Amino acid sequence: MSELEHKYEVEIKSREGRQKLPQETKDELKASGMMDDKGNLKLKGVSPKMLKRMKQEYVECPVIKDDIHFIRCFVCSNFQSRVTGKVLCKGDEF
Ligand code: SF4
User: Fold this and answer.
1) 61 in a domain, yes or no?
2) Within-domain flag for 3
3) Is 2 a member of any domain?
4) pLDDT given at position 3
5) What is the pTM of this model?
6) Whose CA is nearest to atom 1 of ligand 1?
7) Residues in contact with 29: Cβ distance below 8 Å, sequence separation at least 6, in sequence order
8) Could you tell me the distance, in angstroms and rounded to a whole number, from the CA of residue 67 to the centre of ligand 1?
9) How many structural domains is the chain composed of?
10) Is ligand 1 within 6 A of the CB of residue 78?
11) Taking a C-beta distance cutoff of 8 angstroms, is the pair 22, 71 a contact?
């Protein structure tokens, strides 16, 4: 599949304040080395400023059919890229 082939363009929305990541997502992030034991995120190529913004963002996921924290979306197997306020999502069912 080419990089830009995707099924959905999902708008990225933002809320005031930080949103909690589900424990399950934290465990996955830790297991893949993207979060340390203190719960600090370590995402490659993401600046602290960007990370701060990402923590306030979410998407209305068309696959899970629920609001999904942007960080969770970012590490999702369907995530392709982020372009101008949208996530390009492969849209595969889980
Ligand atoms: S990349 Fe994953 S979490 Fe994000 S919109 Fe697509 S299916 Fe949902």
Assistant:
1) yes
2) no
3) no
4) 56
5) 0.88
6) 79
7) 21, 35, 41, 71, 75
8) 10
9) 1
10) yes
11) no
For residue 25 and ligand 1, the question of a CB distance below 6 A is answered with no
Residue 76 has which token pair? 């999702």
DSSP 22: P
In a domain, 1, yes or no: no
Which two structure tokens, joined as six digits, stand for 14?
């933002």
Cβ(4)–Cβ(83) under 8 Å? no
The answer to whether 68 touches 19, Cβ cutoff 8 Å, is no
**Residue numbers of the domain that contains 21:** 8-89
Instruction: List the chain residues with pLDDT less than 70.
Output: 1-4
Question: What residue's CA is closest to ligand 1, atom 5?
Answer: 61
Residue written as token pair 């369907």: 78
Task: Locate 87 and state its tokens.
Answer: 């996530």
Strand ranges in the chain using DSSP code E only, listed in sequence order: 8-14, 57-61, 66-69, 79-83, 86-89
